Amino acid sequence: MKKSARFDKNKVILGIAAPVLAIVAALLITSVIILATGKDPLHAYAVMLDFGSKSDSQVWIINKAVPYYLSALAVAIGFRMNLFNIGVDGQYRIAAFFAAVVGGALTLPGFLQIPLIILVAMLVGSVWAGIAGLLKTTRGVSEVITTIMLNAIAAAVIGYFLQDGRLAVKDGNLFHTPSLPASSHFFSIPTQPAPLDGFLVVAVVVGFAYWFVLNRTRFGFDLRTVGQSESAAEAGGVGVKRMIVTSMLLSGAAAGLIGMPTLLGESYNYGTDFPIGIGFTGIAIALLGRNHPVGMAAAALLWGFLERTGTQLEFEDYQQEIVGVMQGVIVLCVVVAYELVRRYGLRLQQRQVGAELAAQARKTEKAEVSS
Amino acid sequence: MELRGITKRFPGVVANHDIDITIRRGTVHALVGENGAGKSTLMKILYGMQKPDEGTIGIDGERVSFHSPADAIARGIGMVHQHFMLADNLTVLENVVLGGEKLHGIGGKARTEILKISERYGLGVRPDVLVEDLGVADRQRVEILKVLYRGARTLILDEPTAVLVPQEVDALFDNLRELKAEGLTVIFISHKLGEVLSVADDITVIRRGTTVASVVPGETTPKQLAELMVGSELPSPQTRESTVTDVEMLKAEGLRLSTADAEGVERIVLDDVSLTIHKGEVLGIAGVEGNGQAELVEAIMGMRDPDSGTITLDGSDISRLPTRTRREDGIGYIPEDRHRHGLLLEAPLWENRILGHVTEKPNAKGLLLDLKAARADTERIVAEYDVRTPGIEVTAASLSGGNQQKLIVGREMSHHPKLLIAAHPTRGVDVGAQAQIWDQIREARREGLAVLLISADLDELIGLSDTLRVMYRGRLVADADPATITPEELGSAMTGAATGHLTVSEDGPAEGRTEEGGSE
Description:
The complex is a heterodimer.
Chain A: H1 2-36, H2 41-52, H3 55-80, H4 88-105, H5 110-139, H6 143-161, E1 169-171, E2 174-176, E3 188-189, E4 196-197, H7 199-216, H8 218-228, H9 230-235, H10 240-258, H11 260-267, H12 278-288, H13 293-315, H14 322-370
Antiparallel strand pairs in A: 1-2, 3-4
Chain B: E1 2-10, E2 13-22, E3 28-32, H1 39-46, E4 54-59, E5 62-64, H2 69-74, E6 77-80, H3 92-97, H4 101-104, H5 108-120, H6 136-149, E7 154-158, H7 166-181, E8 185-190, H8 193-199, E9 202-207, E10 210-215, H9 222-230, E11 248-260, E12 266-278, E13 282-286, H10 293-301, E14 308-313, E15 316-317, H11 323-328, E16 331-334, H12 338-342, H13 349-354, E17 364-365, E18 368-369, H14 371-384, H15 401-413, E19 419-423, H16 431-446, E20 450-454, H17 458-464, E21 467-472, E22 475-480, H18 487-494, E23 500-502, H19 508-519
Parallel strand pairs in B: 3-8, 3-9, 6-7, 7-8, 13-20, 13-21, 16-19, 19-20, 22-23
Antiparallel strand pairs in B: 1-2, 1-4, 4-5, 9-10, 11-12, 11-14, 14-15, 17-18, 21-22
Keywords (chain A): Cell membrane, Membrane, Transmembrane, Transmembrane helix
Main location (chain A): membrane
Protein name (chain A): Sugar ABC transporter permease
């Protein structure tokens, strides 16, 4: 019992070591960059902390983090399978677009229409991701290639339909789909000074479901097995091809949710100004959070914090781009630090096991000799 | 060159210990040993790719220590790897000078030098041909030339004949004799005894990581060498009292499978294979690796779809069932390559215990995992099967090969299989674990388990099996009675030399035992 406790302690220390190492390294590098532009890095951090901890900033950060988190989950489902779904961006956009079209065309009571809109989004997202899954299993095309190309196709499809007389209406300079009826507006959590997006609840539920399915179900075990070793999974009886398609469908379904907080809680339609690029942000956040549901939540909040406080840096005469630099540096440091710590941990454990067994062997040998 | 007391440990396992070899200048020195005996590790130490934990290497009486292959090359030691390290899209000349540009440049001088070396040793290398246009034997000669070009006086050849056909082997041996005649030293690694005897001046036998004998070809026979390699003092896998029943457990009929290789050439890997294993019977399949054994196993496991044929397990047709259902129906599997097919190396032991049996008790309750029960059962396997580990939370990668294998055996046995497929169950496993695994197979057989045993260790095959079949080029070409057959006779059937039912000459086995003492 004592022995396993020591191994666990190592695990915890190593688990914390990686992010700490990464953040320290990222802060150092960023400081050097800020210094190079002739400004004071410590003051910049002080400004960011001060502005970021204001209550309206907190609400803003949390609301911003919700779609980021959903996006990271969508990416992470692929990562756990060793699939790189780089097409979350296209999946959520086309999903949100068709969900907006369906929602704008109907006027059902909210308790029917909101689930329907969400369902349509998940369905469209999974179909779009599923194409990549099918191409991979039937034709052997790398999902990296197909998903990124499907991003372009999604953009083209939306561009085609998002025109006056097709599926959109003209509103000033913008085109957007007909607005959702008021019954389809999602609830919000009344907080001061601004309300929190009700989709926060959905994000938490989906995050929990992600953890539960992966770690506590047979299906999740199969999925993780394929991610760790396709050959071992196959010998163990997992239908690898089927698992690839299934996980792409799930990833796409999760991607379908990304646009929902915006559609149901903010814009109420899909227009040319609908946010883009969240799918790529999700990749960075999934990397930063190491595919862990809590880690990704922290990463999504960090991302929101950086974006919120970056705007304030401008007023203090810093370059706003410094935030982009920080984000990039953090992701790089995290990837490097985790890999270093992982390898170190594996070696450490091998050495410990070897040493412990050698000690045991010596003991029994001595006992045999003396007896 | 002298090696003294070389010892190399890897996490949880000792790959080499107390190796002593003396290699005379201007000779062909063969190192023989089974797969996993530690030959490759030794060669990596000699070539500077690994550092020994203990022991010394001496060249011409001078102690040396290599930190990298570059040090070895500087000392005149060159290595020809089993898998060629050539760039296909470059010419022979370009491949030879690559990385050695400083020696003779990359132009005319280099070409002259290459032709000179080629001429001197009769290699017949044409410098301006693209490597992709060369056959295997020519590529090997380019590799040898590459090493000579860098001034090597000692060549290490790692299983050079594995990829060659017999005529090419003869040509290679002629080259080696040329090299020897010019005063170069060749270290030749192999497990093919006939070849070793025909080309080597000295032979060192390695078994279980250490040197067990040094012999001279003139004074030994393949039989004696084989015995030295396998070691007659090893725990014997004898299992004589028969437990075979007449209840058919596995029946495969007319299995055919063809695959297309990278160039699109169709190759028949299973050709009308039919076999029956009864309850309580161990069916051993002998054969040189790559003759369809792996495909047969995968067809029975459901990892490959045969083109035709049926597989029946315990009376029900499983030909069309997926792998998972076959496992649930009672097929246990000890895979040939445990790292690829049997373990999740970076997962803890208890997750490895679930692997392959995720739908079965105690691992699952309905659609959910039962982590508590799985962990508890892992503790039980660790204790019962003597898996040496500090706990069940460590990763599988940190265990030694033998302990990994014991975990796999324990896992598969815990689900009380009707049929156990054991592919090389004791490969790369230390002597103690080997004996345990044999005991467990025997124990289960007594309780009515049917076993399909595939092994390269002929003593293991003969000792454990109730029935023996020989596989050659995708066909079961011969069968034999393990009670009377000898490894030598089995060996000749494995090369396709004998077919049908193998019977034994009267004096075969007895002769081998008496002569063995003399050679040591």
